[in-house]
Amino acid sequence: MKCFLLSFVLLASSAYARTVFSAVSVNGVDQGHAVGVRVPASNAAITDITSNDIICNTGFIQPVSQAVITVPAGSQVTAQFHHTSAGYVGPDPADPLDPTNKGPVMAYLAAVPSATQSNWFKIFESGYDTTTRQWGSDKLFINGGNATFTIPSCLKAGQYLLRAEAIALQNAASYPGAQFYMSCAQLSITGTGTTSPSTVSFPGAYKPTDPGIVVSGIYGVTSYRAPGPAVFSC
Predict the structure, then answer these.
(1) Rounded CA separation 39/183 (Å)
(2) What CA–CA distance (Å, rounded) separates 166 from 143?
(3) pTM above 0.90?
(4) Where is the Auxiliary Activity family 9 catalytic domain positioned along the sequence (predicted)?
(5) What is the pLDDT of residue 114?
(6) Among 58, 72, 114, 115, which has the minimal tally of Cβ within 10 Å of its Cβ?
(7) How far apart are CA 82 and CA 181, in angstroms?
(8) Cβ distance 111 to 152 under 8 Å?
(9) Average pLDDT of every residue of the chain
């Protein structure tokens, strides 16, 4: 009976880890649920990092928003995560994600129209804080699902995709086990910058053997290196 209850709790925790990036705010101004965001209809995880689904997810709610969110370079952008694709629907102990889930939260940009597989760069990373012993997921939960970061002020103006991602590591002792939750938003970045950063590919930026993807003992870690490239800064 105890084994059954333990299995049930573990399964429930794994299911509750689900989360969805479904809205954006710019300098504190909420753009609206699903506005400019390609929101997946399911909050199921992507686990195959070699699949094209790792780019922006799959099975988007139709019709996909055609809105493009204007963001001045240097602005504060907030990616809003919630437990389901519907956004915040009321009190939920697993909103924006189950607090027992642990893992990093990251954000990438890619220039359009070539934002397919080969030109992503990281602009934000909240991994494991050795001082506070908090994961990015802990901070996401404390902040009500809001991950806030700055759009680099030196970026070349143009249209970009924003890829915001939370990774759940509770089952990541071997691959495939880590759970990836991401969506993409359509941005128009304005300004006078001229920089086009070095980029990585999706799929390709993450490897099944990366220490940030295969992790055991997430509740007793002393350090953690998130997968992917270093965060770009001007």
Answers:
(1) 6
(2) 14
(3) yes
(4) 19-217
(5) 56
(6) 114
(7) 11
(8) no
(9) 91
CA distance 161 to 38: 10
Q: What CATH number labels 18-190? A: 2.70.50.70
What's the pLDDT score for residue 2?
32
- When pLDDT is cut at 50, 70 and 90, the band that residue 211 belongs to is very high
Residue 150: per-residue pLDDT: 98
* Cα 178–Cα 182–Cα 184 angle in degrees, nearest 5: 160
Across the range 6-18, mean pLDDT stands at: 44
Q: Which tokens hold the place of 151?
A: 């759009």
Give the Cα separation of 170 and 221 in Å (integer): 12
Q: Under DSSP, is residue 139 helix (H, G, I), strand (E, B) or coil?
A: helix
User: Which stretch of DSSP H or E encloses residue 201?
Assistant: none
Whether 71 and 27 have beta carbons less than 8 Å apart is answered as: no
CA separation for the pair 9, 170 (Å, rounded): 13
161-183 burial, b at 16+ Cβ within 10 Å, e below that, comes to: bbbbbbbbbbbbeeebbbbbbbb
Q: What is the pLDDT of residue 217?
A: 83
pLDDT, residue 17, reads 64
- Domain limits, the chain: 18-190
User: Tokens 């359509």 — which residue?
Assistant: 186
| Helix or strand holding residue 56 (H, E) | helix 53-56
Strand partners, 186: 161
Pairwise CA distance, residues 114 & 83, whole Å: 31
